[in-house]
Design goal:
The complex is a heterodimer of chains A (about 475) and B (about 400). With about 475 residues, chain A is α/β, with parallel strands linked by helices. Chain A contains 18 helices and 22 strands. In chain A, helix 10 packs antiparallel against helix 11 (about 350-365). The two termini of chain A are about 10 Å apart. Chain B is an alpha+beta fold. Chain B contains 11 helices and 22 strands. In chain B, helix 1 (about 35-50) links the parallel strand 1 (about 30-35) and strand 2 (about 55). In chain B, helix 1 (about 35-50) packs across helix 10 (about 365-375) and helix 3 crosses helix 10. Chains A and B meet through helix 14, helix 15, strand 22 and helix 18 of A and helix 7, helix 9 and strand 20 of B. Strand 22 of chain A pairs antiparallel with strand 20 (about 320-335) of chain B. Chain B: It comes from Yanghanlia caeni.
């Protein structure tokens, strides 16, 4: 038996889930104000996905990853300083498998179950890649660009074969540039956006101007790709990944012409969306974001959920990027300070207002980016023969049949076909299922809703469950 | 062939006989309140007899216990009063489910085994079998240690024997819900979802049933509102001590087949089965808090620990198997753990079937027949006296 099993659960003022930019910034603020803070993260190091392995990156890899990656150093250094001074408890290798509305957290720390009680929780669990359901997306040899980037950041692993990159969104181009710097041969880049709507871009001109740094970054990445003379195809339609046991070729039409490229590796990406597994599991309110085509938790101006005392910051709240995430982390920590001591902090409202203005200025370019990188309907709402739920092998056609049988939402199709009930807990199919049902039943995604997310949010073994505190 | 293609679409009019559809937008012969399995089964049986039926469901059909239960088709271990009903359901309907509902609901006659781990368990099991034999029931039989090992070779060797029922099995709850629903609609029943009943009253010889979307009328009302049936019973003058509680289950990742029968344990609560897809569904009286107003139950993983301990005791090799998901359905429990089935005592024209206390799945196909018999003939062919609605108040008075 665990000798600590009989002691009362560990207790903190605030528990921060995730040590990416939002979580690190929140921890810094909360620790500076002498709160009893626990920062926990699944990875062995702070940084999150964007600044993954920030503390153990050698200069060569850092040159490949680019200057943005280094912004994470300042945040990581602050966290390290608080930890060294005993002002912050930091648990790496810790996965949260259940959060209760009474702010109890059930975690696996180094694979052992531990229960933690908090006054407030900041969920900074970031983003995940949007599913890209096209024919053949489940073949070996097809990965997401995010997975490719994680291999690069944490293990310096790059493809040995020429790679096809297909999709849209800044991460796809960033990975292309990083691969080029690392000497990887890129067979082709397939741009699946509808193309730039310059009239619309002009309308967002003010936002573009305010977000010049982002625009400049995007243009310089494209220039680097162009200079490397990578074959670049635009206006992609009918993208099909083909092969018998593994990927052999990528077929598509570009600007009306058919193409087939032999390839053993294809990385897909069409943007990132908030990882809302924890907030849905809390039955918090969510809204369908018609610009970003994803669910976002409904938040107060202090980043608080409809569940009191639980806050969300960073890309888990809405996609805004690393700089916005850090500012939101800071803002959410101010929200926690206000909650724990409503009258004790002079100037808190002023500080929050300044943060909100700064966030707004960073977000000015978002409407343009949302348009520019909007994944097209055909790549989100697939044809009948395409697999939607990879775990349980449910096709879009099967979901449409279930709608005809009277299933009006994802929870009915789940009960009917086990769609979304596999080990990924619906992360890989949830958005697709909502949109397929919405299209088939003529409802809005908001009315269709999402899966009820149930614990354990992260896989737990029967042996571990047998060990938890009664 | 896809799963959905194996179900028959609910065609609006099929066959030669015109379906018994509700007479008008407002009135019908019968209103059923609650689209769980008991309500849907009642709709199937009644509509097939030419009765016009309108069913009102507060959320969507099978949302709670009916759609998300463990799927056990079990006569084993039943309360003596339930045995005739459960045998009728199993032998007359479950084993012929495709004929009955146009789809087999995933029924597998895998057998059910209740294992004994101690000498006390063995004594209790043998006493139970003897008690049933004295009443004339022979469906529960003793399986000795060798038989148990033959039935489940992967089970821990400390198991001493068990009670074995070879014709029991399991099915897929939501498939049964869908099949019943489609059958009811084919027979002409009208099923309205998102219609939460707020009030019912008797006026000018008919019952008026009000939902947030409208008021419906019928001379007969069937209360199959599950965990929410207590309020309706109270409104018609039949107060019952019904408790809404959550009931939890968990499911694991897929693993190679290692157990065929559904398992229970004699000395501790357990419900355990491996589905054809390799996943293992684990439960066993795992109660949790329910919020009947918010209409959901709150999963409490700490309570599930006990089942994890039981399972890893019986199958030590499952220690590293991943739990993928835990969930809970809201269920209605009665103090004596058997349901209310029968006519209202206070209000003529009202019939109840609720409070199945976590074992209504197997009974559901026969409950509809009982309700149809009560509506049509005023009595049931099966013995339902033990389930009368006023048994709690009667006991208090004596």
């Amino acid at each position: 038996m665990n000798p600590q099993a009989s002691t009362s659960p560990l207790s903190y003022d605030v528990v921060i889930i995730g040590a990416g930019p939002a979580g690190m910034a929140a921890a810094h603020r909360a620790a500076r104000h002498q709160l009893n803070v626990l920062l926990l993260d699944e990875q062995p190091e702070v940084g999150g996905q964007i600044y993954r392995s920030i503390n153990s990156t050698d200069p060569q890899r850092e040159a490949i990853l680019g200057p943005d990656y280094r912004h994470g150093h300042a945040l990581a250094a602050q966290v390290a300083e608080h930890v060294a001074a005993g002002r912050l408890t930091y648990w790496p290798n810790t996965a949260v498998w259940q959060v209760d509305t009474d702010k109890t957290l059930h975690v696996l720390r180094d694979n052992r179950p531990v229960t933690v009680q908090a006054q407030a929780i900041i969920v900074a669990s970031g983003a995940m890649e949007r599913p890209f359901p096209v024919p053949g997306w489940t073949l070996p040899g097809v990965m997401t660009a995010g997975a490719g980037q994680i291999l690069l950041k944490s293990a310096s692993l790059v493809p040995s074969e020429p790679v096809v990159l297909a999709g849209c969104g800044p991460l796809l181009y960033l990975l292309a540039v990083q691969y080029l710097r690392a000497g990887v041969k890129i067979r082709a880049i397939l741009d699946t956006t509808a193309g730039t709507d310059w009239k619309l871009a002009w309308r967002h001109g003010r936002g573009l101007l305010k977000g010049w740094r982002y625009a400049h970054k995007g243009l310089s990445m494209l220039r680097e790709i162009k200079n490397a003379e990578v074959p670049f195809y635009r206006g992609i339609e009918d993208l099909r990944l083909e092969g018998t046991d593994a990927l052999e070729r990528v077929r598509f039409s570009a600007d009306g012409r058919q193409h087939s490229l032999d390839a053993k590796l294809c990385l897909l990406h069409q943007g990132v969306v908030p990882n809302t597994q924890i907030t849905w599991s809390l039955r918090a309110e969510h809204e369908w974001d018609t610009d970003q085509l994803c669910w976002v938790p409904t938040l107060t101006e202090w980043c608080e959920l409809s569940v009191p005392g639980i806050y969300v910051a960073g890309d888990g709240a809405s996609i805004g990027g690393a700089l916005v995430a850090a500012l939101q982390g800071d803002l959410a920590a101010l929200g926690v300070l206000r909650q724990l001591n409503p009258t004790g902090h002079a100037g808190l409202s002023q500080e929050a207002a300044t943060l909100r203005a700064e966030i707004a200025s960073h977000l000015a370019i978002r409407p343009f980016l949302n348009r520019q990188y909007r994944p097209r309907d055909a790549f989100r709402i697939p044809e009948d023969d395409v697999l939607v739920c990879r775990c349980e092998e449910v096709t879009a056609g099967s979901i449409r049949e279930q709608v005809a049988l009277g299933c009006t939402g994802p929870n009915q199709t789940k009960s009917f076909s086990r769609c979304g009930m596999g080990p990924c807990q619906g992360r890989m199919c949830g958005l697709t299922v909502t949109e397929v049902i919405a299209q088939a039943s003529g409802q809005s995604p908001q009315d269709v809703g999402y899966y009820r997310i149930r614990p354990p949010i992260k896989a737990l073994t029967l042996g571990q469950l047998a060990q938890i505190d009664p | 062939m896809t799963l959905a293609a194996r179900f028959t679409r609910p065609a609006r009019a099929q066959g030669n006989r015109p379906p018994a559809r509700p007479a008008s937008a407002r009135s019908s012969d019968v209103i059923i309140v609650g689209g769980g399995l008991q309500g849907l089964s009642s709709a199937v049986h009644l509509a097939r007899r030419g009765v016009s039926v309108r069913l009102l469901e507060a959320e969507y059909c099978g949302r709670h216990s009916s759609g998300v239960n463990a799927g056990g088709v079990r006569t084993l271990g039943r309360h003596v009063a339930e045995i005739p009903l459960s045998l009728a359901a199993r032998d007359r309907i479950w084993h012929h489910m495709e004929e009955f509902a146009g789809h087999d609901g995933g029924f597998v006659p895998s057998g059910q085994l209740q294992v004994c781990e101690t000498d006390a368990d063995v004594a209790a099991a043998k006493a139970r079998i003897a008690e049933l034999e004295a009443l004339g029931y022979t469906h529960e039989t003793w399986a000795d240690q060798a038989t148990v090992r033959e039935l489940v070779p992967s089970m821990s060797h400390h198991v001493l024997g068990g009670i074995w029922v070879k014709d029991d099995g399991y099915a897929y709850p939501y498939h049964v819900v869908t099949a019943f629903r489609a059958s009811a609609e084919r027979a002409g029943a009208e099923i309205l979802e998102q219609q939460r009943v707020t009030r019912l009253w008797h006026e000018a010889g008919v019952w008026h049933v009000q939902t947030q979307r409208g008021t419906y009328e019928a001379p007969i009302v069937i209360n199959t509102a599950g965990a929410w049936a207590g309020e309706l019973a109270e409104q018609v003058g039949d107060p019952v001590p019904l408790l809404a509680d959550g009931l939890m289950l968990m499911v694991t990742q897929r693993v190679a087949p290692f157990v065929e029968p559904v398992l229970g344990a004699m000395g501790r609560p357990l419900s355990f089965k491996q589905y054809a897809n390799g996943t293992v569904v684990i439960g066993g009286s795992l109660r949790c808090e329910a919020d009947p107003v918010g209409r959901h139950a709150i999963v409490d993983m700490a309570t599930m620990r006990n089942s994890a301990i039981t399972v890893t005791d019986l199958f030590p090799h499952l220690r590293n198997m991943q739990v993928v998901r835990a969930w809970a359905g809201v269920e209605g429990f009665l103090p004596d753990q058997i349901p209310v089935i029968g006519p209202s005592v206070a209000s003529p024209g009202v019939f109840h079937a609720f409070g199945f206390s976590a074992h209504g799945f197997e009974l559901s196909p026969i409950i509809g027949e009982i309700m149809a018999d009560l509506v049509e003939h005023g009595e049931s062919r099966l013995p339902i006296h033990p389930f009368r609605v006023n048994r709690f108040t009667q006991q208090e008075n004596t």
